[in-house]
Specification:
The protein is α/β, with parallel strands linked by helices and 226 residues long. It has two domains: 108 residues, 2-Layer Sandwich (Nucleotidyltransferase, domain 5); 91 residues, Nucleotidyltransferase, domain 5. The protein is 31% helix and 32% strand. Helix 4 crosses helix 5. The termini are far apart.
């Protein structure tokens, strides 16, 4: 009786299964091997090999890229309606922060928004529990550097971190930053499932019609006019 987690908001596509706050299995693909069009195939492979029954779905709703979010949400909503399962929306940044669940302290998750802006959220981790310090924010590079420079003590940085780390250290060398390993910088499907299991247990779910994507930036789509 597992929760399915779906993450397709970044260039890495990941699906995972969790039950009783334990990761059962996970399938992650990146680069040329990752196609949102094949999400249902990845899910079918994962579920069939685990030989478990789904009781709910958790899906990353953003911030993220237009095509990736659209494919992930369409798949999750279709499965939820067809199988009559509860569905929980999960933030990309919270899923990234969950990579650092074993750490204690301030966690900061970052992804690109536009050329000069970043999606960012701050969390705190203590004894295996993560709590939010801020909502998901969109900040310019100068404002993000200012924010990170004001954080006291050592903090953990996960996501697209290399350029930001270098800029913060150049501007404020006294700021103590620990960068997560690159493998811990994307929203994994298994972690999405773990978050979703908690949300579903607290009945913090939405109908498939209520769940909307949160794009990193507005897609450039021309409106057709007859």
């Amino acid at each position: 009786m597992a929760i399915l987690g779906i993450s397709s908001a970044t260039k890495t596509i990941s699906v995972g299964l969790a039950e009783d706050q334990k990761l059962l299995s996970e399938l992650t693909l990146a680069g040329r091997e990752a196609f949102t069009e094949d999400l249902i195939l990845y899910i079918e492979k994962l579920v069939s090999e685990s030989k478990t029954k789904l009781t709910g779905i958790a899906v990353v709703v953003g911030p993220g890229a237009y095509s990736g979010l659209r494919g992930g949400l369409a798949t999750a909503k279709t499965l939820a309606q067809t199988l009559e399962l509860k569905i929980a929306p999960v933030s990309t940044l919270e899923a990234i922060a969950y990579n650092l669940l074993d750490q204690q302290g301030t966690l900061i998750a970052i992804t690109d928004a536009t050329r000069e802006d970043y999606n960012v959220a701050l969390f705190t981790s203590y004894r295996g529990e993560i709590s939010r310090l801020t909502e998901d924010l969109v900040l310019s590079t100068p404002r993000l550097i200012e924010l990170l420079s004001a954080v006291t003590g050592t903090f953990y940085l996960a996501g697209q971190t290399e350029q930001i780390y270098a800029k913060v250290q150049a501007a404020h060398p006294e700021t103590r930053i620990i960068c997560a390993h690159p493998q811990s910088c994307h929203p994994r499907g298994g972690l999405v499932a773990l978050i979703g299991e908690k949300l579903i247990a607290k009945n913090e779910t939405l109908s498939p019609f209520e769940i909307l994507p949160k794009y990193s930036h507005q897609p450039n789509i021309r409106e057709f006019k007859a």
